[in-house]
Each structure stands twice: as C-alpha cells, then as structure tokens.
Write a structure and sequence with these properties.
The structure is a single chain. With 471 residues, the protein is of the alpha+beta class. The chain has one domain. 14% of the residues lie in helices and 21% in strands. It is built from seven helices and 21 strands. The strands form four sheets. The chain has a nine-stranded mixed β-sheet with strand order 1-2-13-14-21-20-19-15-16, sandwiched between helices. An eight-stranded antiparallel β-sheet has the order 7-6-5-11-10-9-8-12. Helix 3 runs parallel beside helix 4. The termini are far apart.
Amino acid sequence: MTPNKKPVTRKQTSVVRSIGPMVPLAIALLHGSMTNKPTLGPSAGSAGASVTQSQSTGSGTLAGMHCGGGTTDSPACSAPYPMLTKGHPVDWFFVFKLNGGKFSMCGGGDTRTCPFGGTVQTTPSYQSFGQQYVFASSEAPVLQGGGKDCLGTTTGDPVGATFDEIYEGNFHFVVWNDQFYGDPKSASCGGDGCSGTWGHSKGMVAWNEAGEGVVMQVSTPSWPGAGSAKTPRKDGNTLGCVADNDVKVSQHFFALRLTEPDLAQVLRGLANASVVTDTANAQIVNNGGPDEVQELVKVLGVKSKSVTYSMNTLSTGVRLISKPSDLHVPPWQMVSSLLGGISLRTATWWAAPQIESTTAATKIGCWDSTLGKPGAVDIATTGQWSGTVFGLKGGPNSDANHAKVGVSTTENDHLSIFGDMNQQGTLSGSNCASSQNGRGGMFFVMDNEKLAGSITGLIAGASAPTELAAK
C-alpha cells in the first residue's frame, strides 16, 4: 500500500434481495426460462425446503483497472482485490498448484524466498515439494502455466500478489483454517487442528471501510496464519516456508472480488459452515467496516447449530453454497443436487473413508428431504498437464492431491466448482455423520465455458469405481 497516493475508486451500486423459504423454486424456474439454463436448487418433487437462498446484483468490473502498483499511474487501491500481479487487479482468479511428485520445486528450480516470514525449509518433510502452478482469471479464463518463481513467494504470481496487497495493507480481515497447527493456538480445540464437527474450511477475506474486498479460498493447511504484517505469525506466513509441508501435494486457490452485500453473504456462509477462527485474536481477525459486517464477524468461530444449507448468487454471478456440519449428507452429491441434479467430476483428497463414484441411479441413504435428486458424481484419480499424468488421490506420497475442485459433465453446462470438502464419508448406513458428511464447508460455483473446459482437461483421466460396482 502507498497511503500518500490517492486511492482509485470505482462506481458501484448493489442490491440484495432476500427470498423467503417458499419462493426460491419459483425464482429459479423464472431464471431458467429467461436464460435457457437448467433450474437450480431442489427439484420440484422435493419437500418444501427450509433453506436460505438470495441474490445480489451489482455493477462494475475491475477490467482495465490499474492500482496497487506503487507508481503514479497505479496508485493505492481503494479496496483489497484479487491480483494477477502487483498492481494488476482482476475480478477473480483460480490457481492449481501442481504436486511435488511430478512437478518438483518451482518453474525456475529451487528459487524459494520467504517475504512474508518463515524460513526456506530443508527438513526431511520437505524432501519433496512443488510450487509450480497453472492459473486462469477473469481476463484469461483458459489455464496457462505459471512463471519461474515459486507460487506465493513474490508479487509476480496471483497468490503472492493478492496476499501482499492484504498483508502489507491496512484492511479489515478474517483468516480461518481448521489446521493452523498451533500458530495461532485455537481457543476452541487443541492439537494440530480442529476436527469433529468444525468446518473443513480454509481461507481469508479482507475488506475496506465500505465493505468492498476479496475472498480467497485455499486448500492449504497452516497457510495463511496471519492477516497483517502488524501481527506476524511466529511460524512464518509465506507459502512453503512454514514447518508443515503444505506444498508437497496439489492444492488450489480461488479469489473473488466482493461488494459489501457479497461480503455479508460470505460471512453468513462462514458462520453456517462453522469455520475455525478466533475473533479475539488480532493475528487472524481485524474487525471493522459497515455495522452489519462487524456484527456478522462477531459470531464467527463458534459451532453453528444450523441444519440448513444456504445458496446465494453474488454480484459477479458466482454462486456460493454453504453446508453446515449438522446436514449429514455426502458433500459433492449435495452440490450436484443444488445445481439441479447435474453430473459432476471432482478431484479432492480421496482417501479413507472414501465415497466411491456414483451414478444417477445410486441409492443414497444419508440424505435430507430438502434436497432434490443428485446426478452422477465421478471421482477423478488422475489428471494431466502438458502431457504429464499426475495423481489426484489423497495420501502420504508426493504424487497426491489436496485441492477440491469439480466441473459439470452434463451436456450444455459449463460449471467450475471450488470447494472446501473432500469425497470422504458415507452414502448410507448408521453413521451418516462420518467424516466430511458431518463437517461444514463452502463451495464457489462459476459458469464460464472456457474455464470449465480447461479444468475438465486438467482433471481428465482415470476414475474411482462406482459405488454400485464396488459392491
């Protein structure tokens, strides 16, 4: 940030419309008839859902804007935004960090630096690491290879530039992660992280006094662990420079600009998902801004008693889904249902207790009456980039995956989904709260044909067997 420069401002109007419990289906049907898109939300045959759905619309885009570069033609940004590089804001970006087993070190070799604290790790756990990456953005939605530097360690890549804008700035923020590994220590649970019925969710959100800002969903344990250089983390706060090797396997990062109504919806979603944070710890929470935002922040960091999903459409058209921990259903089948029963292909940390691939005919006993019928959910076990096949299962080896991404496979749908949750748990049985079924999390759903086609190619490959075939 360069406070002596006049901030760039952007005209923007936004409207939030709350939709009552009996109205969402009618709105979705009307939307579908106007856009020729499949109806979203529970099917017409499902029970009257006690769910939350709303829509916010706003004008404005960051296309062509230059701010945050520290020069006369790129003054300080008026809000924290997703950044492709320093001084280059965009409406959104997606980064897939490739695993260290097949894409070791960084694009230019071992060029690690730790600008946000921490040390270059040489412990045995870091014998295998990878910070090579591919990325897409609102400017160029087809995946492309990253640069020679290590992801997250310079302002020349999307993760590093966005984090720098927040960390070195003067904004309000919330950081959440169910695996902080003791720094910061959790007031709610001990050990390396918070499991049980806490949300399986990681990320940060930052905003200005008007409530405009950015949310960045991450899949990395133990990063980030602080939101400002004014309150640094003892273990360091640079990707790949912390004690836990969070750059061994594949990870993902998704950042999206927010209006004030968007921010409020994100905060409600975080509360519904029971994310792990601590509003009394200045290292990870700096509350402020609009009164409504401050009140929503105050209720974070506690376990929600909700049994109701929420689904909201943000000003960018991205849909936000929040699953509460007490909605005991397989998470990606829930997403399929909420998106009108479309079929999906997903890549997550697929490890015991695995949920196998399912078809539209698979019987799911662990279900809820507010949800319609899901489509097929295919579990990717390998993907490929630039001719190299890489693993998409969870596991201790370096050719593994911890990202949580999905794409629609139904004809004429072009959805990309960035989530918090793995395909772990159960489809049926007496313990419907097993693993991820019994945890909360968020999903961001984007309708973009080029992006979806590109991610489809990234996670194309072998699949887990179907649940029917497995039995």
